[in-house]
């Protein structure tokens, strides 16, 4: 009779049913395999995909700065007027592009320790100006001196150095000086062996952050990259209460299977505290 229409339909139905059964089996098996593969590949140990991206951060990480430029320095100094500031920024630097160093696994506690070398490269395309933009800012050395030396006699001496160096309450500094360091003319006159370079992040280049000890996820994948200790400690001894704890990751990576409802905790050594982010909406960082 050959293959008539009915026969074709039956064959089609049978093949369809077989494929549906296979599909039914393979979907959970596939999910299981994918989950198993993810669980294997996110562990921070030699040979996994996550490890490679973790040693040297796979994506560009930027840090942006906004500076408060003082508009009325003379009025504040002479007449104690209210300070007027103008926010200028962003000034963007690429950070965390250097590979982690001294990576040491501890199989017993399932942790890995490392140093994160510091480096910052200015990114003009994401900044409103250059590193040489000048700001009128508080004179950090002059403002801090009376706090450090409450003694009137010492303050008298320091005041003579401040006058001699023509320093005052405010100073003009470039972005580069403010962030990465400048030689302070007032401190330069102080006849003691003190650090005369001042900068919000000085010293930065050729220094490293850490030692960090984080969980490698080998025993519990939900702990991967979470910090166990920072510089050998579980707290900072700087803030009071929970702000002093070191919770979460270093923000460069997070454990897998994160839900949008989850609050992501991370610790930033630059601001010397932990913080967190809540999901609000999706957006794209893709630049055309
Ligand atoms: C300080 O206040 C006086 C009196 O109001 C005014 O004449 C002077 O210009 C002010 N000085 C500065 C630097 O603003
Ligand atoms: C990192 O490793 C280098 C050499 O391998 C060593 O000289 C240095 O002391 C280590 N640093 C720390 C903080 O352990
Ligand atoms: C720090 O190093 C980076 C990369 O070599 C360089 O672009 C930057 O200018 C350096 N910063 C300072 C303040 O020396
Ligand atoms: C800072 O710069 C402004 C103008 O750019 C100038 O008027 C002021 O005298 C400068 N201040 C100091 C302390 O050098
Ligand atoms: C902070 O850590 C020190 C030792 O690492 C410990 O003695 C102290 O109790 C901790 N404080 C808090 C608030 O956890
Ligand atoms: C934060 O860290 C501390 C000490 O490591 C821990 O006891 C606490 O449960 C953590 N809190 C959160 C919300 O993860």
Structure write-up:
A hairpin with a 4-residue loop joins strand 3 and strand 4. The chain has a four-stranded antiparallel beta sheet with strand order 3-4-10-11, with no helix packed on it. Strands 1-2-5 form a three-stranded antiparallel beta sheet, with no helix packed on it. The mean pLDDT is 89. The chain has helices at 5-41, 49-55, 73-79, 140-148, 152-164, 175-180, 185-189, and strands at residues 61-70, 85-95, 101-106, 111-117, 120-122, 134-138, 170-174, 182-183, 197-198, 208-215, 227-230, 264-268, 273-277. It is elongated. By secondary structure, it is α+β, with helices and mostly antiparallel strands. It has a domain at 39-220. The chain starts with a helix and ends in an 11-residue tail after the last strand. The chain binds 2-acetamido-2-deoxy-beta-D-glucopyranose (6 copies). One 2-acetamido-2-deoxy-beta-D-glucopyranose (NAG) binds at residues 136, 170-172. Residues 102, 115, 211 line the site of one 2-acetamido-2-deoxy-beta-D-glucopyranose.
In short:
The chain contains 7 helices and 13 strands. With 288 residues, it is of the alpha+beta class. Bound molecules: 2-acetamido-2-deoxy-beta-D-glucopyranose (6 copies).
């Amino acid at each position: 009779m050959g293959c008539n229409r009915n026969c074709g339909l039956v064959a089609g139905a049978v093949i369809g049913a077989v494929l549906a059964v296979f599909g039914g089996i393979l979907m959970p098996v596939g999910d299981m395999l994918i989950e198993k593969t993810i669980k294997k590949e996110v562990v921070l140990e030699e040979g996994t995909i996550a490890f490679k991206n973790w040693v040297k951060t796979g994506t560009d990480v930027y840090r942006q700065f906004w500076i408060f430029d003082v508009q009325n320095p003379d009025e504040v100094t002479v007449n104690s007027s209210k300070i007027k500031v103008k926010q200028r920024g962003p000034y963007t630097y690429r950070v965390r592009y250097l590979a982690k160093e001294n990576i040491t696994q501890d199989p017993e506690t399932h942790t890995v320790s490392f140093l994160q070398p510091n480096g910052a490269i200015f990114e003009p395309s994401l900044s409103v100006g250059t590193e040489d933009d000048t700001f009128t800012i508080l004179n950090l050395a002059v403002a801090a001196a009376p706090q450090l030396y409450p003694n009137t006699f010492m303050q008298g001496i320091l005041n003579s150095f401040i006058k001699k160096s023509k320093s005052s309450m405010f100073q003009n500094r470039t972005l580069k000086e403010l962030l990465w360091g400048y030689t302070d003319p007032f401190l330069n006159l102080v006849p003691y062996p003190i650090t005369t370079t001042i900068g919000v992040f000085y010293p930065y280049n050729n220094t490293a952050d850490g030692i960090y000890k984080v969980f490698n996820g080998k025993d519990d994948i939900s702990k991967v990259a979470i910090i166990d200790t920072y510089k050998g400690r579980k707290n900072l001894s700087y803030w009071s209460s929970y702000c002093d704890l070191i919770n979460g990751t270093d923000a460069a990576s997070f454990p897998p299977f994160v839900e949008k409802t989850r609050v992501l905790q991370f610790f930033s050594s630059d601001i010397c505290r932990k913080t967190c982010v809540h999901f609000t909406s999706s957006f794209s960082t893709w630049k055309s």
